[in-house]
Amino acid sequence: MHELSLAINMVAIAQEEGERLGSPVRAVHVRLGPMSGVIRDQLVSSYEVACRDTPLAGSRLVIEETQLIVYCPKCKVERTLNSPQLLRCPECNSPTPRIVGGRELQIVGLEIDDEQ
Q1: Assigned CATH for 2-112
Q2: What interhelical angle do 40-51 and 2-21 show, nearest 10?
Q3: CB-based contacts of 27: which residues, under 8 Å, 6+ apart?
Q4: Would the pTM count as exceeding 0.70?
Q5: With 60 as the cut, is the pLDDT of residue 116 above it?
Q6: Which residues lie across from 60 on neighbouring strands?
Q7: DSSP classification of residue 103
Q8: How far is CA 51 from CA 8, 14, 65, in A?
Q9: Cα–Cα distances in angstroms (integers) from residue 32 to residues 41, 62, 65, 98, 106, in the given order
Q10: In whole angstroms, what is the distance from residue 107 CA to residue 65 CA?
Q11: Spatial distance between the Cα atoms of 17 and 24, rounded to a whole number of angstroms
């Protein structure tokens, strides 16, 4: 389960930033794409495990799920797909192998307790 190693790294990054700011981290905000290779529920469970016995114990993982965006070479435009199973343009049905968005797993923000 690689989600645990990802969660451990996210907790370490957030803990380091919280220490730098001198404030406890209450939530970690991440963007998660459908092509990231990460299973959302497993990441949430892994985050809870990774937080145990750290300053982030009790913090929340807030996940913003992004859409799968591809470039259609025939239409010459970016399109949003509903499913990663079929990489075809929803307008012209041409293959769309160029993925523009949807692979991300990135920390985009931290909520901190500034009343310290």
Answers
A1: 3.30.2320.80
A2: 50
A3: 59, 60, 61, 62, 110, 111
A4: yes
A5: no
A6: 27
A7: -
A8: 8, 10, 22
A9: 12, 10, 5, 19, 7
A10: 12
A11: 9
